[in-house]
Amino acid sequence: MRSDVIKVIDSHIHLDFSEFDARREQLIAQMRKLGLVNAVIPGVSSESWDRTTEVAKQYQCHYGLGIHPWYCNQDWQVGVAALERHILSRNKEPSLVAIGECGLDGFYRDNWQWQLPCFEAHLVLAQRYQLPIIVHSVKAHNEVLALLKRYPLDRGGVIHGFYGGSELAKRYLDLGFKLGIGHLLLDEKAKKLPEAIVNLPLTSFVIETDLAMVSDLQKYLFADKINGSSLILHLLIEKIANLQKKTNVLVSEQVFQNTLQLFDL
Prior knowledge:
The chain has 10 helices and 8 strands. The two termini are 20 Å apart. α6 links the parallel β6 and β7 (177-181). The chain has an 8-stranded parallel sheet with strand order 1-2-3-4-5-6-7-8. With 265 residues, the chain is an alpha/beta fold. Residues 213-230 have low confidence and may be disordered.
């Protein structure tokens, strides 16, 4: 990494997904060349947790463990029990830094009856083991906020892929959460999120690629912007800096510190 490259931490990247098996080594090398010094890999299902921890260890990243709402089913209690066993077996590992990815997704109504108690169980574990939580909140903000208020967390957490406006953002911030800012900020059609960025302090944000999602859905937007890849952290820094009328360096340093503090890296 050159000395003039801005250092970044990716607060949410699914490096363990199988789609990266053939190019993970190249991808990590490229990201480090572009300034990546750390990353948090969120676990999404019991079937993937061992893989999550293996990839994190191999590439000197940090990770979380959880059950993503897309993977909740009628056996969620079995999954949560397995999750606690995994946490107990790895609780002394400094690389385990969070519970999650977990949360609620209103687009997935077929398993909604299981999403709610499963997310609640994750909050109980976050309280019990004093870990921050990585929250997926889509079309379910009122339900997520109600549960976060019921289970206050000393370590807080992050609302991953935040896409709302200032008022919604403040409700999460008041509960001690950071906002995970990703590729949606770079969507020219987005109106609420840029307005929130303008009106909130820099201490509110961490940045993320959510790389699997970006690769699948948004690659055409970013393919020519950073070395032919979907690596968008520097684009996010630049966009936040423009909105807040601050320098890229100031923004990068603050979101870097925010991420260190959130996950105790």
